[in-house]
Amino acid sequence: MSNDQQEDQSQVLRQRLEKAWAMQEEGVNLYPNTFRPRHTVAELRARFDGSSAEELERVEDRFIIAGRMMARRDYGKSTFFDIKDHSGRIQAYIRKNDLPADQFEFFKKLDLGDIIGMEGRLFRTRTGELTVMVVSFDLVTKSMLPLPEKHHDINVELRYRQRYLDLIMNDRVQEVFLKRTRIVSFLRRFLEAKGFIEVETPMMQLIPGGATARPFETHHLALDMKLYLRIAPELYLKRLLVGGFGRVFELNRNFRNEGISTQHNPEFTMLEFYQCYATYEDLMDLTEEMFEAVAAEVNGSETLAYQGQEVSLARPWARMRFLDSLAQVGGVPAGVLDDRDQALAYCRDLGADMPAHEKQGKILAKIFDLAVEPKLIDPTFITHYPTDISPLARRCESEPNLTDRFELFAAGREMANGFSELNDPMDQRERFLAQVAEREAGDDEAQFMDEDYVRALKYGMPPAAGEGVGIDRLVMLLCDVATIKDVILFPHLRPER
User: Fold this and answer.
1) Is residue 479 part of a domain?
2) What CATH number does the domain containing 35 carry?
């Protein structure tokens, strides 16, 4: 902001403060809690948007609404203004002749951004706009700071730092978050209808597990011990399968101490669900059904327009093995798939900073990220990932170096990860030990040893499959939003300077 802009804003603020103080001296309560709206803008529009001017003249009802004044057009002894409540916007009209002598003068002192309550009847203007003819009003809340003139006057950083201002000025933003609520609600109903039970597991964990990620650390004073914010609920949910639950899900926050990008936020929402006596193939079928259903519910169609591309969620979806996708989609030479040294050189040629000691599976996974993932626009299941990058997944019985695992990609990004669960405690312990060795070698995203989880498996976990779905990315897809910051109400940012 330039010095001139700062000076202008300071002057406007001083004027508003002086006006507010003058109102208080006149006995005006700037923040009363007595006005009670009886109607919403959405209710009025639902009932009367289709009514003609003649039909509205026969409506004798008076309506009482409250909202923020977003615009005004003064014409001497009358004013048109726009009111916005939580459900929408509507125009209002106020005339000096319809009010007590001092009330219209008081109205003229109000500012854009003030929240007012009003009573009136409905009519249509000459241009046909549904409008409230105000017969009385009250100041409900005084706004001390001026609103931006238009929503596009709010820069990107201000939108995220002051989300409340973004929501006031940009109706599209509110629509995205209302749709997010509908998506989450639908997913809960969908899984409950399939017999899944919603549960809650610890957010603070003694041992972080269930994903390959760097955790946040905290400290419990009373117990004098280190705790971690969870990176995933997986190992606790599978403990419940050991305990006798057959189908469980959790829809909640995870925390990963990683970078911030258009697809990543350190605090994000995941849906994880687990089903006994199921395989990864069963969950692929379930995922197709769930995504298709939620798209139809909130968008009315299985075909989406996402950032200028058409994405069809109609079943069936493509399914491709991991190594095949590298060759067929990524154009990776056969020698790279078979030889670690060639894979390392190829990965570095793509621009990745890959350590020389890295294992073949992780190198190929990075090549996939760069050469394959951006090309997967329509939903595609990639299956049979290498065992060394799938420490919790069941081995493929015919190919033990691969796992019964899938990842779902759409619009060029990962949407979900699922697999048939490893329930062999001895194999699981060996996999954990391999992860510990990687951590000791300097990989701070490698998983910890969890002896209690291994002990739980020793009691016997039924064969099962589980999956995690990134809710934020799903909302991005269904709302045609390019960055995760636009689907998280309060994304993480650097501190203001």
Assistant:
1) yes
2) 2.40.50.140
Question: What are the residues whose beta carbons fall under 8 Å from the beta carbon of 261, sequence distance 6 or more?
Answer: 484
Overall domain count for the chain: 2
Q: Indicate if 112 and 196 belong to the same structural domain.
A: no
- Domain with residue 481: its CATH number is 3.30.930.10
Task: Please indicate, yes or no, whether residues 385 and 242 belong to a single structural domain of this protein.
Answer: yes
Residues 6+ apart with CB under 8 A from 455: 425
CA distances from residue 265 to 179, 210, 423, 472, 491 in whole angstroms, order as listed: 20, 18, 31, 9, 7
The Cα-based distances of 331 to 202, 337, 360, 368 in angstroms read: 43, 11, 18, 10
In the listed set 147, 182, 209, which residue is the last one of a domain according to the structure?
A: 147
Structure-token match 């994903």, residue found: 211
- Nearby residues of 441 by Cβ (< 8 Å), 6 or more positions away: 357
Overall pTM > 0.85: yes
Beta strands in 125-261 (DSSP E): 130-141, 197-198, 204-205, 217-220, 225-229, 247-255
One digit per residue, pLDDT tens: the chain, 497 residues? 555 556 666 788 888 899 999 999 999 999 999 999 999 999 999 999 999 999 999 999 999 999 999 999 999 999 999 999 999 999 999 999 999 888 999 999 999 999 999 999 999 999 999 999 999 999 999 999 999 877 566 788 889 999 999 999 999 999 999 999 999 999 999 999 999 999 999 999 999 999 999 999 999 999 999 999 999 999 999 999 999 999 999 999 999 999 889 999 999 999 999 999 999 999 999 999 999 999 999 999 999 999 999 999 999 999 999 999 999 999 999 999 999 999 999 999 999 999 988 999 999 999 999 999 999 999 999 999 999 999 999 999 999 999 999 999 999 999 999 999 999 999 999 999 999 999 998 888 999 999 999 999 999 999 999 999 999 999 999 999 999 999 999 999 988 87
Q: How many CB atoms lie within 10 A of CB 306?
A: 18
Range of the domain at 118: 15-147
Amino acid letter, residue 71: A
